[in-house]
Amino acid sequence: xxxxxxxxxxxxxxxxxxxxxxxxxxxxxxxxxxxxxxxxxxxxxxxxxxxxxxxxxxxxxxxxxxxxxxxxxxxxxxxxxxxxxxxxxxxxxxxxxxxxxxxxxxxxxxxxxxxxxxxxxxxxxxxxxxxxxxxxxxxxxxxxxxxxxxxxxxxxxxxxxxxxxxxxxxxxxxxxxxxxxxxxxxxxxxxxxxxxxxxxxxxxxxxxxxxxxxxxxxxxxxxxxxxxxxxxxxxxxxxxxxxxxxxxxxxxxxxxxxxxxxxxxxxxxxxxxxxxxxxxxxxxxxxxxxxxxxxxxxxxxxxxxxxxxxxxxxxxxxxxxxxxxxxxxxxxxxxxxxxxxxxx
Length: 344
Known about the structure:
The chain is α+β, with helices and mostly antiparallel strands and about 350 residues long. The chain has helices spanning about 5-15, 20-25, 25-40, 60-65, 85-95, 120-130, 180-185, 190, 195-200, 240-250, 265-270, 295-315, 330-340; strands at about 75-80, 100-105, 115, 135-140, 145-150, 160-170, 170-175, 215, 230, 255-265, 275-280.
């Protein structure tokens, strides 16, 4: 029997499992350097002027999708913070969104609060346990989920794709002998989330999973939810850049961000077909292919530095746009406190 590494050792030696603030700590000093160079600690907020703080925190997910051609979007419903559950059910029926569906905070980040909802009872429980605006989206059961990081050159308008990550959802495969509990404990990624998964699958934990049956443990494609991030840089080509040039053209004030998309067929994607954009992230978007196991920490940091430099270049190119009232760093800190400690 293979000896499993202790979780503390996995977390210590694999940077993909480090807390966000630990992984990015060295870039605190690079951000300070760029801020002094720009003479503005809020220089990042000049990127994506139509996103709150450039998309750093509290971005309006529904608003970011509003300008996109509807053929690229799943059915999406914005639930106001003063809505009743009766209103929610009425809007879901009117929009024709069937179960299962996806529910998430309209202003959340990094997969927090995103859940796959199986029925009306689960939707009621979710609604009652969340404060603030919510998004309801149809569940798109496509073969591929990708994160495509795209930006426009501020002078030429030329589009660039700098990162593509492919998402491998957290799953286990049965062998007809082991229980679900054993399979979870035998998988590094699921073991890191065992408390959550043991609670989620409490009714069937000790059932033997049939041979070759694939059980998806987590339908949400976020790294913090156990998803494996796979380097998809080989998918970048001129055709795909052209597709995202067209998509982004309609998004007013968009400079830089990651499109989280689902596609059924990669070849069709290059023709702009079968693409569903689940959300867009702004300056907080990571070049997430760096979490592929083939990357070293130094290699990952080189990629992140490159993207800080891109955002700095875009921000400085916008600094003379006097008709825009740029948010200050002080305003950001106030917004951050409100975002992390929302009132009931």
